[in-house]
Design a protein that fits this description.
By secondary structure, this protein is mostly helical. The chain has 12 helices and no strands.
Length: 288
């Protein structure tokens, strides 16, 4: 327990360091964009590749992909139920902030540090289903059900596929899964290199979060934010309990699902929300 708490506090310390350095002027306000590019396109994919080095294909893990997909649909449905008598702006706010799991910069660093390579692979399998919704599925459903009278770019299977294939982590997920199914392994020097680079993923992810964090509370809208966070915690606890006790998976996979459902802090794309909806200047990450 002491080791777990020490690691958790270390994560918080790195986030605080990023925020402190930004406030002191060491980082400029938009320097996080460079760190985000490095994390999403270099260190995160390398961490995924390294985790697949000794992985043996377990087809039961595809259940995680289904859970990731259905978990989003559940929260989208709940968002529409909550706001069925409210304005379109409220519908958009609730749906986009209730649905979605920020796996790449929240869950994967935790899985990488606390649970090991197999947990990273299991987390990636969950994120395959989650990514389908986060990269356009949620927007497509919301656009079809909420008519604001404004023009919007149509979202279809082709555009969602284009966004998924434009995501470096997602492409790496797919390539490594194909290699696992075919029982192919990359040369050992490749894993050595990716292990070196991927080892920086946790630190850079936490530092980036600190650099991006900015709290500007609007007391008039605090009630909505509080309600969204409360529902996310309630559903996170319920889904984690359901998966842990009633889904026929291994203990390691159940630990991953519990971790995934507790990574709740996520605000969605600013371009899809009214200006007042963004209560925190939080990471906007639509790719895994």
């Amino acid at each position: 327990m002491e080791q777990v708490l020490t690691k958790a506090l270390a994560f918080v310390a790195v986030i605080a360091l990023g925020y402190f350095l930004k406030k002191r002027g060491f980082f400029k306000p938009h320097d996080y964009e460079l760190i985000a590019k490095i994390v999403l396109n270099i260190t995160l994919p390398c961490a995924v590749i390294t985790s697949f080095a000794a992985f043996k294909m377990d087809y039961t893990l595809f259940i995680l992909t289904l859970i990731g997909f259905c978990g989003n649909l559940l929260m989208i449905a709940w968002g529409f139920i909550l706001t069925r008598y409210q304005t379109n702006a409220a519908k958009i706010f609730y749906v986009f902030n209730l649905a979605g799991y920020n796996i790449g910069c929240f869950t994967l660093p935790f899985a990488q540090s606390f649970l090991g390579p197999f947990a990273v692979v299991a987390t990636c399998m969950f994120d395959v289903g989650n990514s389908i919704m986060c990269t356009g599925g949620t927007y497509a459903l919301t656009s079809g059900l909420v008519h604001t009278g404004e023009k919007y770019e149509p979202v279809n299977l082709r555009s969602i596929a284009a966004k998924l294939l434009g995501s470096v982590p997602f492409v790496v997920y797919m390539l490594m899964l194909v290699c696992a199914v075919l029982q192919l392994h990359l040369p050992q020097p490749v894993y050595t290199l990716t292990g070196l680079i991927g080892g920086a993923n946790t630190f850079l992810s936490m530092l980036m979060i600190g650099m991006m964090f900015e709290m500007t509370l609007d007391l008039d809208k605090l009630k909505q934010v509080r309600e969204v966070v409360l529902y996310r915690y309630v559903f996170g606890i319920a889904l984690a309990w359901l998966c842990f006790y009633h889904v026929p998976l291994s203990a390691e996979v159940k630990e991953v699902l519990t971790l995934v459902f507790w990574r709740l802090l996520r605000l969605s794309a600013r371009s899809l929300l009214p200006e007042w909806a963004v209560m925190w200047n939080w990471p906007v990450l639509l790719i895994p």
